[in-house]
Amino acid sequence: MESLRLTVYKHKKFPLGRLRYMDLVIKIRNITRDFPLGNEVVKVLKGIDLDIERGEYVALMGPSGSGKSTLMNLLGCLDTPTSGSYLLNGKDVSNMSDDELAEIRNKEIGFVFQTFNLLPRTTALENVALPMVYAGASKKDRTERAREVLTNVGLADRMDHKPNQLSGGQRQRVAVGRALVNRPSIILADEPTGNLDSKTSEEIMKLFGDIHKAGNTVILVTHEEEIAENAHRIIRLRDGMVESDTKKQFQSEGARVGQ
Ligand SMILES: Nc1ncnc2c1ncn2[C@@H]1O[C@H](COP(=O)(O)OP(=O)(O)OP(=O)(O)O)[C@@H](O)[C@H]1O
Ligand SMILES: [Mg+2]
Question: How far apart are the CA of 239 and the centre of ligand 2, in A?
């Protein structure tokens, strides 16, 4: 499989190097994304390479207009690149049809948006269970799993509330629950705290921390250095290219445990 590699790493405790199993959940090579605009073409992503291992916690930063959301939409299979390759869990998704992408998205990706994007006339429980409807799960399984996930995000007592009966932070918790419900390989969040006050942002960041600690791969876009500090790796985009990519610490074993 493309995503699996054995790599020898030099490590203090193991002077001879130690064998480490590297499990790439994302491998992109020379990705570009152009948008036609009238008679012109806007070149937004200009050749991005990126490897993300299972279990990493990544913050994607960069000035407004640098291409963060465009890249996240590609990573989340909401869009396809103009050129370049994207392997998600070793599978090439760069040339898939819309139907194939929809299936991969539902199974492998949990997306959290700045504006929550919940169905308004639907309860928290039904919002969280929705991706399982598309996955073909039974009503019983959906309800059981959605209850479990809502309890994990601290909303056991708000399951029957509709979005307008919830606070901003609670709505974002529902959105995080919806992102987790199908046990995806990656959680992508585009400015998940952009519409929240600082205390509520902290709560949501704690939740992302817990999700990461449970073994999940998390990639989030933020403008705030303080939020980015929660991540173990910070990738900065500038003008459609990777300007810097820094890892805070050696990250060990990437195996994903339950959520
Ligand atoms: N559909 C489109 N057609 C034309 N240009 C687009 C389209 N979508 C995005 N762009 C352009 O691509 C550039 C990057 O947009 P993107 O939304 O990825 O930026 P961003 O880094 O997420 O910015 P922000 O921090 O403001 O959210 C912008 O200059 C934008 O105008
Ligand atoms: Mg954006």
Answer: 13
